[in-house]
């Protein structure tokens, strides 16, 4: 373990930069996952309309119900991903500020 204050500062800065990079990577992955859910929702709308236009057959009703539940689940997952990404972006901003203050020392 380093005892020189300059080495300790450099080690802290290096650790913060690694954590910042990991946070940015995670934020990008969350963004891609969110886009995937939104694409699924967009693709599901025309399918729902086509199914509903076929009539009152029990299998069609089952398909519509299943797709509706899947759409609701995707929307809930999207909301959770958005709030998680917002929290992660706040954490990244805090780490950047901490990194700036360490570099200024």
Features of the shown structure:
Helix Hairpins; 105 residues; 90% helix; mainly alpha; single chain; 2 helices
The number of distinct helices, counting runs of at least 4 residues, comes to 2
Write the CATH architecture name. Orthogonal Bundle
Total beta strands: 0
Uncertain runs are none
- Categorize the overall geometry: rod-shaped
SS strand fraction? under 5%
Using the CA coordinates, give the radius of gyration: 23 Å
CATH class placement: Mainly Alpha
> What is the averaged pLDDT score?
83
Verbal overview:
It is built from 2 helices and no strands. With 105 residues, the chain is an all-alpha fold. The relative contact order is 0.14. The protein has helices spanning 5-52, 58-104. Helices cover 90% and strands 0% of the residues. The chain is rod-shaped and about 75 Å long.
